[in-house]
Amino acid sequence: MESIAASARIVLHIQRETALHVDYCASFGLSKEEMEKLPEKMECTAYSRYILDVGQSEDWLALQVALAPCLIGYGAIAQRLYTEEKTLRDGNRYWKWIENYVAEDYTEAVRLGSELLETHMRKVSPSRMEELIKIFIRATELEIEFWSMGLGSGRQ
Fold first, then answer.
1. Cα 85–chain centre separation
2. This prediction's pTM
3. Are 32 and 57 within one domain?
4. What pLDDT, on the 0 to 100 scale, is given for residue 156?
5. Is there a domain that residue 124 lies in?
6. What separation in angstroms does the CA of 138 have from each of 66, 68, 105, 128?
7. Local structure of 92: helix, strand or coil
8. Do 134 and 117 fall within a single domain?
9. Quick one: 136 and 146 in the same domain?
10. Is the separation of the CB atoms in 108 and 16 below 8 Å?
11. What tens-digit pLDDT sequence spans the chain (156 residues)?
12. What is the CATH number of the domain that holds 118?
């Protein structure tokens, strides 16, 4: 039951995170309606469909592993940028994004997600561990492509 409750809290956080993204885009003059009309880029399609595929064809743990590069990665990147002395704060168009991902609710979601993974990964067989590692590697590759798209170096 604890894993279910922790997963539910993470899902609730995703809902809040989505609202933060919509508000963040609005600060640049891009409305939710405009975003919904834009075509989805290949990198976004590949990554989101991979997550959906894992969720539909694998078990709960595999889905958590597939989501981990996003959940844990964003927290780690934001924490590094937030604490880095060289990070520009004033006039940084991404500063609000950084603050959102070091906020208490997000760091709690990362802690819960990491704890769930640690707890459940201890219980799997070596062969299952290898399968889950492959899922994590692929999800990480797709997350990198997703970031590359956002940075403008992805395929157009």
1. 25
2. 0.85
3. no
4. 44
5. yes
6. 8, 11, 27, 16
7. coil
8. yes
9. yes
10. no
11. 787 787 787 778 778 888 888 998 998 899 999 999 999 999 999 999 999 999 999 999 999 999 999 999 999 999 999 999 999 999 998 999 999 999 998 999 999 999 999 999 999 999 999 999 999 999 999 999 998 987 875 444
12. 1.20.910.10
User: Is the distance from CB of 53 to CB of 123 less than 8 angstroms?
Assistant: no
Count of domains forming the chain: 2
Q: Tell which residue, 78, 94, 32, 69, has the closest CA to residue 145.
A: 69
| Structural domain boundaries enclosing 138 | 39-151
Question: In angstroms, rounded to a whole number, what is the distance separating the alpha carbons of residues 136 and 116?
Answer: 15
118 with 93, same domain: the answer is yes
Q: What is the pLDDT of residue 153?
A: 54
Q: How far apart are CA 140 and CA 73, in angstroms?
A: 9
**Same domain, yes or no, for 107 and 140?**
yes
